[in-house]
Amino acid sequence: MIVSWMWIAIVGLVVERIATKKISSRNERWLLEKGGRSSIEKHYRGLLIVQYISYSAILFELVFLRQSTVTFNMFFFVCCVIILSGKWWCIRSAGMFWNAKKITLPRVRLFKQGPYKYVKQPEYVITLLEIAFISFLFGAYITACVFPFLYMIYFKSIQSGAQKVYTNA
Predict the structure, then answer these.
(1) What is the DSSP letter of 71?
(2) Could you report the per-residue pLDDT of 1-29, keeping only the tens digit for each?
(3) Domain range for residue 58?
C-alpha cells in the first residue's frame, strides 16, 4: 500500500532523475561537440535497465507483496539523502565532464577531485547504494537484497569496457 509520505518521496525522486538527465544530456552534447567519445553506450543502457527494473520491483513489492502499511523510517531516509548528495557531489566535482554515459574527451587527463579522488567510478557505487536504500526506505526488502547484487554482477561483467574509457582518456 502506498501512503502519503511515499508519494512525496516518489515525486522527489522523479524530480531528481529529471534534473540529472537534463544535466547529463547537456554535458553529453557539449562533450560530443568537443570530440568526445564513448565505448560503453550499450552497457550504459543495461545498467539503466537494471536500475529502472529495480524501481518497478519496489512498486510491485509494495502493491502486491506487502500486507501492512510501511511506516516512514528516518534512518533510511537520511541514508537516501546522503547517497543522493553523493551523486550531486560527483556532478559538481566533474562539472561539464559529468555525464551518465561516460563520454570522455581524448587527450584530457582524468581529474582527481571530489569523490573521484577516492574512487575511480563513484557513480556506480552510489547507484548500487541508491538501489538498496531506496528499496529499504519503501519497505521493499526483497528488492533491496536482490537488485544491488544484479546491478553489481552486470557492472562486473562490463567493467573491462568501462576501464578502457577511463584509461584511454
Answers:
(1) P
(2) 677 899 999 999 999 999 999 999 999 99
(3) 4-167
> What gap in Å lies between CA 17 and CA 87, rounded to an integer?
11
Which residues, 6 or more positions from 88, have their beta carbon under 8 angstroms from its beta carbon? none
What is d(CA 165, CA 155) in angstroms, rounded to the nearest whole number? 14
Q: Residue 131's domain is classified under what CATH number?
A: 1.20.120.1630
Count: domains in the chain: 1
Within the chain, how many helices (H) and strands (E) appear?
5, 0
Would you give the DSSP letter of residue 139? T
C-alpha cell, 136: 529499504
Tens digits of residue pLDDT in 39-56: 666 677 788 888 889 999
| Cα 50 from Cα 126, distance rounded (Å) | 14
Handedness of CA 48, 59, 131, 66 (dihedral sign): negative
Distances (CA, A) of 100 to 2, 9, 79: 30, 23, 22
